[in-house]
């Protein structure tokens, strides 16, 4: 997963000073995503990460003190990558509802390409509970900000609150689990996002 | 957590033949919920479970072969308990939308009383992936059945499909995480359920 500057990582990783160092750090995080994603935290090893990254063990310790430290950096990096994936989809001017649709479609495509993101963020509940909670709290806050903006523009109801943002986040996470991670491509991201968006636009009650 | 007959457990546990045996099995599962909920799968121990249950080690092995076996039985037992909690709320005649509201409120109350349910079902993703997936697939199928029934009665849209059921399941799971598990009682279950139900009834778009 190359999402450019490992922004989320720099909270817990030592910051690289050179472009070469930045690339090494990126390689380590990408390798850690595969190692933790395939083996889980407990079975994963630092030597497994450096072997996948093609770096020396010394390079690992330049940036991280432990397996826990790179796991934490990875969770924050992935949380950032989820945000970036959605933000790119939000770049074009669109209505508030269209933005939710685009954000979900982008997330579904991201999750299909990086199926390990679920396993790693979910395992953070046990390995690094603070990063786990932070991931959902910041994601929920971002959705709430979009809902409020839509409210101010008169496109969405003005009384939307945190519970609506968490409801939408839960919808998106579970649709990603079902169709991007467990799915066999039986339903394209665009169609899943369109169905969810129709629910947000119209609800599920029969027309009166 | 006493949910009566440990129905979900009997797939993987040896079936008790007597009422006394049934009570011992129930005590072991309730003790396991606390032990796994507090310590996590890896730190939890069989002796910790039997100490909490007040049973001899021999009683444990009457019903389970291993820590893995009781964990699996517990996940299925909790999955069943979630179903039972919702079903009791659904017993009264009500419209399809009111049923969704009642099911969510019941789930939120259940999760607030049994906060360990999240940690245990979430840890199943790593310890017992098949039970994890089965929990969500059967829960999603149950919601879809309710949606289709509502469609047949003309109360809900006739074109609701699996994606809508998973969207609603995700909403419910994340609202439970935020307000029942992480919440400090800042929002009562009935109000969370009412907000989510309003989203299902009307969507989030501004009125036109």
From TrEMBL, chains A, B:
GO terms for molecular function: DNA-binding transcription factor activity; transcription cis-regulatory region binding. This is TetR/AcrR family transcriptional regulator. PROSITE patterns: HTH_TETR_2. Residues 45-64 bind DNA. It holds the Pfam family TetR_N. It comes from the Bacteria. InterPro entries: Homeodomain-like_sf, HTH-type_TetR-like_transc_reg, HTH_TetR, Tet_transcr_reg_TetR-rel_C_sf. Residues 22-82 form the HTH tetR-type domain. Keywords: DNA-binding, Transcription, Transcription regulation. It comes from Pelagerythrobacter rhizovicinus.
């Amino acid at each position: 997963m190359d999402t450019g500057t490992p922004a989320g990582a720099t909270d817990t990783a030592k910051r690289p000073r050179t472009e070469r160092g930045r690339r090494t750090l990126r390689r380590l995080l990408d390798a850690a995503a595969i190692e933790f994603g395939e083996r889980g935290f407990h079975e994963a090893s630092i030597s497994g990460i450096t072997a996948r990254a093609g770096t020396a063990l010394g390079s690992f310790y330049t940036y991280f003190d432990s397996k826990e430290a790179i796991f934490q950096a990875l969770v924050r990096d992935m949380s950032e990558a989820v945000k970036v994936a959605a933000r790119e989809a939000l770049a074009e001017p669109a209505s508030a509802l269209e933005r939710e649709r685009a954000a979900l479609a982008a997330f579904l495509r991201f999750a299909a390409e990086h199926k390990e993101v679920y396993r790693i963020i979910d395992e953070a509940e046990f390995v690094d509970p603070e990063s786990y909670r932070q991931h959902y709290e910041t994601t929920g806050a971002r959705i709430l900000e979009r809902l409020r903006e839509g409210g101010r523009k008169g496109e969405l109801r003005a009384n939307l609150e945190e519970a609506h943002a968490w409801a939408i986040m839960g919808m998106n996470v579970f649709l990603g689990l079902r169709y991007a991670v467990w799915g066999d491509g039986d339903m394209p991201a665009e169609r899943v996002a369109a169905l969810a968006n129709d629910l947000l636009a119209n609800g599920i009650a029969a027309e009166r």
